[in-house]
Amino acid sequence: MLLSLALLLIVGFVAMKIVSYFRLPGLIGLLIVGALLGPHVLGLLDQNLLLVSQDLRQFALIIILIRAGLGLQWQQLKKVGRSALKISLIPCLLEGVTVMLVSHLLLDFTLIEGGMLGFILAAVSPAVVVPSMIELEESGYGTNKGIPTLLLAGTSIDDVFAITIFSFFFASATGVEQSILSVLAKIPYSIIGGIIGGIIVALLMLPLIRSKHITLKHTELLLILLTFATLYFYIGESLQLASLLGVMVLGFVILDRAPAQAKIFSRQLAAIWVFAQIILFALVGAEVNIKVAIEAGLIGLVIIFIGLIARSVGVWLATARSNFTYKERLFCMIAYLPKATVQAAIGSLPLAAGLQSGGIILAIAVLSIVVTAPLGAIGIRLAAPHLLTQK
């Protein structure tokens, strides 16, 4: 496994640098490397590494989400609070329902099967969006109106909606009775519980950070922070809380209560991210089965793009009463295109459950990663200087 990890790191790093030379997001090179080295092409990665792939990807996400939280300003968060809820709900519902109906017409899916596909595809990728928004924050693009903050918050909540509604259709398809009211009740429970959990973990950390009697080095404090965040994520997932949102809230509270230490944490996490991003995106790429994606064919592409149009309409509607210009609203539409994390995590569940439509659902989920992750990442990079104002 160590040899596979070393191979992934060195080849991934070189690929990231080559792609960056052409002014494209490095994650595209990492996705390609992961797909090539993974089990579906060259098969050079150790099976044991692939078995812990999910855990490694989640840890990398924890790192970037803490860092995102450490960059959230209270004034900006207050400014975009209501808009964040709208931009997480409306595009997700429009895309999910549209794909459900289109797959019913084009693939002869039942509405339950179409609902599973729709809300697998409806989740935007925090793995792609969050690092991109942090880059925008650091370069000052869109920060005057809190656009990176809006998209950071919206991405985490968007996934809660998508996964919760998917779970309803999945339970229905596998014969588990579940009322729509119980599913809807899970959404506020998950979001509010995730936020409260993140605040609690932050409050547990603050005495250590502020203490004048306990002399811990900054690196030791960061180790404790990452440990607490990881434990919270594990417990939160088992309780069906919005753990990723909670991890971001954890960073936000620390920034609000201990800004000097938060800046140090942010610099340290930026250094760790150099390593973590290779693990995250290369292992997401390793999940991609090109042959399965090809099986989705033209109909799969049509369904994905119709869903993206519905999502874009949803973003336009969600930002209708904001103070954003047309260019800024267009940027939000582009930033909400990429899919990767959720699709890689749950795209195979219907197939694993033995559902007849599972193979097609997985093929379209994989194809959505292949198409939208690079499209969204490149779109964000190229569009930001033209559509957003720089502070």
Summarize the structure.
With 391 residues, the chain is mainly alpha-helical.
Topology, element by element:
Blueprint: H1 2-21, H2 26-37, H3 47-51, H4 53-69, H5 74-106, H6 111-121, H7 126-139, H8 147-173, H9 180-210, H10 218-238, H11 243-257, H12 259-286, H13 290-318, H14 326-335, H15 341-346, H16 349-352, H17 358-387
Helix pairs in contact: 1-2, 1-12, 2-12, 4-7, 4-10, 4-11, 4-12, 5-6, 5-8, 5-13, 6-8, 6-17, 7-8, 7-17, 8-9, 9-10, 9-11, 10-11, 11-12, 13-14, 13-17, 14-17
Structural commentary:
Helices cover 80% and strands 0% of the residues. The chain has a single domain, classed as Na+/H+ antiporter like fold (Up-down Bundle), CATH 1.20.1530.20. By secondary structure, it is mainly α.
**Main sheet attributes: strand count, strand direction, barrel closure:** none
- For the record, the CATH architecture stands as Up-down Bundle
Number of strands: 0
List low-confidence stretches: none
Mean pLDDT: 90
CATH fold-level name: Na+/H+ antiporter like fold
| Helix percentage range | over 70%
- What's the SSE pattern? HHHHHHHHHHHHHHHHH
The span between the termini is: 45 Å
Shape: globular
CATH C-level name: Mainly Alpha
The assigned structural class equals mainly alpha
Binned strand content: under 5%
| Helical stretch tally | 17
Count of the domains? 1
Radius of gyration: 20 Å
